[in-house]
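Subject: Interface between my chains keeps coming out wrong

I've been trying for a while to get a sensible model of this assembly. When I model each chain on its own everything looks fine, but I need the whole thing in one frame so I can look at the contacts. Pasting all components below, labels as-is. Any help appreciated, I'm running out of ideas.
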Amino acid sequence: MRIEPAPSVRGRFRLPGDKSISHRAALFGALAEGPTRIRNYSSAADCASTLECLRALGVTVDRRGDEVTVDGRGPDSWTRPEGVLDAGNSGTTLRLLAGALAGRPFQTVLTGDESLRRRPVERVAAPLRTMGATALTTDGRPPLTIGGGRLHGVDCELSVASAQVKTAILLAGLQAEGTTTVREPAPSRDHTERMLPVFGVPVERHGLAATVHGGASLRGAEIAVPGDVSSAAFLVVAALVLPDSEIHLEGVLLSPTRTAFADVLQAMGGDVEVRLESTDPEPVGSIVARSSSLHGTTVDPARVAALIDEVPALAVAATFAEGTFTLTGAKELRVKESDRIAAMAEGLGRLGGRVRELPDGLVIEGGSSLRGAPVRSHGDHRIAMALAVAALAAEGPTEIEGAECATVSFPEFYDFLDRGAGRG
Ligand code: S3P
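Reply #2:
Try treating it as a single job with all components included. I did that and got this:
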């Protein structure tokens, strides 16, 4: 795909539903008794993978555009799938399902595309084994075979902050005997803890610990999914780095476990306004971003879990900022859909940015003017979108190899960019 520079981005946008919340709404609906209606379900290919896997487990799912109805008949109605469950590119689908399936009395093989088959799953397999499930990985990676059965609760301390692992253990815990507690080293996104009560299941929270009691049953719910804040981050950065720009994003998820990127951009001098409009069950509101003169900053490693998916977008902002931007404590980026540290260093480097890789982060010397060049997405949606934003503000056209993988999280992305740039 060829991206031409744009003089500015302007406009008002309503984003498709948040990916993390959509996955959970569909999966919890499938575990619940009674129908679950989901509005503004994510258009992401990843969230379609979740629906396909649920159908393969015998769950009736009806989708009309962004409205999804899941005909929940409780976990006992789930049936052994005929073949392997294919999570596509979606780590969330695979890891969350692993937890839900740990309590089912049949064996399932979970796998995914080439990228997902390179990603670590021992982090979810190991705790599920301690709960009494069989969980066989392929050298720590998918295919992952889950043999469910009688589970017992655990008190589990995670070594990495991961909402996927936390959720998997809590979902297994709901089907276990006794109490299950997950303790995290830093706060990861808390959508599971906020959404389970909407399905009638209490979650006790104390600091960085979340506890559920086994034997609880979920009941169907109505879920309105707020706009995807991770998708918003790309548009926000585009507005900050391009001159004469202003965008308004409405109905966006504003969970503090997801908006740390906005705090970092503000600390860099970015004109980013976050307006909270409602708080229950999730904080939702609007974001307004305008062209800004940015300067570098050092990101507090304690905040990294709350901006992990936004690092590619932040790296673009840093390239256009004066001075040095330093991010550490982000080793997890090496095991996302691609090695995002290496992929961003390569991509921005080819465009003329000065980016140095650290084992667990990036150091970016800003202030260089970028020049369009051939770059690679590495099949990673967030790398493709971040490089597209950089390309808008570069001189001359940029060719992005594999740009279409943006559909994994944000199929409308290039249309939104065109619309914002006044050429859509
Ligand atoms: C997600 C959790 C994060 C995030 C991913 C979505 C979720 O992953 O990077 O895009 O929906 O729970 P980890 O749990 O691996 O940190």
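Reply #3:
Confirming on my end. The pocket of shikimate-3-phosphate is lined by residues 20, 92, 162-165, 167, 188-189, 308-309, 332 (CB under 6 Å).
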